[in-house]
Design brief:
Layout lengths: L4 E4 L6 H8 L3 E4 L5 H8 L4 E4 L7 H6 L5 E4 L9 H6 L3 E4 L5 H16 L2 H9 L17 E5 L3 H12 L3 E5 L5 H7 L2 E2 L2 H7 L2 E4 L13 H5 L5 E5 L8 H10 L2 E6 L18 E3 L8 H21 L15 H22 L4 E10 L6 H13 L11 H7 L3 E7 L7 E9 L2 E10 L3 E7 L2 E5 L4 E8 L4 H11 L4 E8 L5 E8 L5 H8 L4 E8 L1
Parallel strand pairs: 1-2, 1-3, 3-4, 4-5, 6-7, 6-9, 7-8, 9-10, 10-11, 11-12, 13-14
Antiparallel strand pairs: 13-15, 15-16, 16-17, 17-18, 19-21, 19-22, 20-21
Helix pairs in contact: 1-12, 5-7, 13-14, 14-15
Bound molecules: 1,4-dihydronicotinamide adenine dinucleotide and 2-oxo-3-(phosphonooxy)propanoic acid.
InterPro entries: ACT-like_dom_sf (IPR045865), ASB_dom_sf (IPR029009), D-isomer_2_OHA_DH_cat_dom (IPR006139), D-isomer_DH_CS (IPR029753), D-isomer_DH_NAD-bd (IPR006140), NAD(P)-bd_dom_sf (IPR036291), PGDH (IPR006236), PGDH_ASB_dom (IPR045626)
Family: Belongs to the D-isomer specific 2-hydroxyacid dehydrogenase family.
Pathway: Amino-acid biosynthesis; L-serine biosynthesis; L-serine from 3-phospho-D-glycerate: step 1/3
Length: 527
Amino acid sequence: MTKPKILISDKMDPRAAEVFRERGCEVDEITGKTPEELMAIIGDYDGLAIRSSTTVTEEILAAATNLKVVGRAGIGVDNVNIPAASARGVVVMNTPFGNSITTAEHAIALMFALARQLPEADTSTQAGKWEKNRFMGVELTGKTLGLIGAGNIGGIVASRALGLKMKVVAFDPFLTPERAVEMGIEKVDLDGLLSRADFITLHTPLTDDTRNILSKENLAKTKKGVRIINCARGGLIDEAALKEALDSGHVAGAALDVFAKEPAKESPLFGTPNFICTPHLGASTNEAQVNVAIQVAEQLSDYLVNGGVTNALNMPSLSAEEAPKLKPYMALAENLGTLLGQLNAQEIESIAIEVEGAAAELNIKPITGAVLAGLMRRYSDTVNMVNAPYLAKERGLNVAEVRHEREGDYHTLLRVTAKTSEGEKSVAGTLFANKAPRLVEIFGIKVEADLAGHMLYIVNEDAPGFIGSIGSTLGEAGLNIGTFHLGRRNAGGEAVLLLSIDSPIEEAVLWNVCKLPGVKTVKALNF
Ligand SMILES: NC(=O)C1=CN([C@@H]2O[C@H](COP(=O)(O)OP(=O)(O)OC[C@H]3O[C@@H](n4cnc5c(N)ncnc54)[C@H](O)[C@@H]3O)[C@@H](O)[C@H]2O)C=CC1
Ligand SMILES: O=C(O)C(=O)COP(=O)(O)O
């Protein structure tokens, strides 16, 4: 097997490259490229490892013809176009916990820096001014900290703030009252937070709902003298409105680690009294960077080498133990989907994916992804198990997953049924020796076959001499039959023939087969 190729396009701890190599990948570390330069090289790579400096746009994904996975060594993925990645079948992963303590500590550090004006005091003192009377601070003990966003980082900030004897209130629509009690904080609405908080710290992702959450209007609702900290994402605060509020003295101080436009080499906020900033350093500690570098390299190589999926934002997780067990099922699922997709000419309204026996014990989501990928292969060359569920949803295809507890004829069975205007059409397969995918039924007729390469599917009336005439028709066309599989509904009734053929089957041959007496359907299939 050729080694998966990884591009590390942002500055990352050297452990990332080491882990990639230890786990069987080739790695190039090429940082600081422009989007055009990145587009020129990305086509060579199976995996891309990034931090926040690389923006993975639709154009970059279009140029990334071999790309299978993007790994964010960190938390925020607003620099990755996830819908475009999903549409192209590229998995996007992050490392959701590796830098959260470090980022929470940065928020606390900025809160102290604001409370005691540390940067200005430092600059003044080192300038020989000794302005002891200029720098009067505020105490944190007893003050109210308002958290906007109480997830991982917000939760850690809360625990540290409680340790500092602050009162913590939080606005987070997804925070349950029980969790708030567990965290020792008070759940409030946004207006309640704005009116009560002495310090506000933001810890939400940047989404359509959170963009400008501290807008001019909301800043006006804050308590006079509030101090604001943002270590989450630029774009959560209206920077122009913040500048006005600092100038007017309504906001007593603000500390930003993140800016709407990064790198922020200029800003109207620069130079404003009581304004502090750092260049997106929230995650920048040795500990956090080692954590996220190792995690991203483990996750990406696991996916590319073994098919394990961890912390993916656009597909279900699949552990390293599950992945090898599921592998033959995915091949079977994809084959059954491909078979159904090729045999059915009608619009499919819904698909049911049923598992029984050993298959019922498994994670069904990846099996569903593989069935849908096979099914939609005839519409798209780029469909795979990652983007197939999204494409299916886009097309309004209803997908049902059914797990049967019952014992059937096979130790393990996967059945895929399509509902069309002509009724239900179903194909089923099993695994031989737990590893070899094998078709066992087409449209209610038992036929056992390996689905591989070029195949010919024929439905005919069961009659003596038919097999001989097929043999001669194909022989006359110079086609060699590899395997021959036969099934029938009942003696003299409808019969199904599945032949594997050593070379592609020309249209003219299909016509000749069609003309044989008793033939109802002929189709060339490819797997
Ligand atoms: N400055 C830096 O270097 C770093 C910044 N970050 C950023 O910190 C942010 C938070 O990270 P985590 O705590 O790990 O994420 P998380 O997903 O654990 O928590 C986010 C919280 O925001 C809440 N939320 C979502 N929409 C909301 C809304 N409209 N109003 C209020 N709350 C809302 C969610 O319910 C969730 O509890 C992310 O944007 C991440 O990118 C993360 C690491 C480093
Ligand atoms: O993890 C995050 O969301 C961060 O913002 C950290 O960004 P960085 O990796 O330091 O560029």
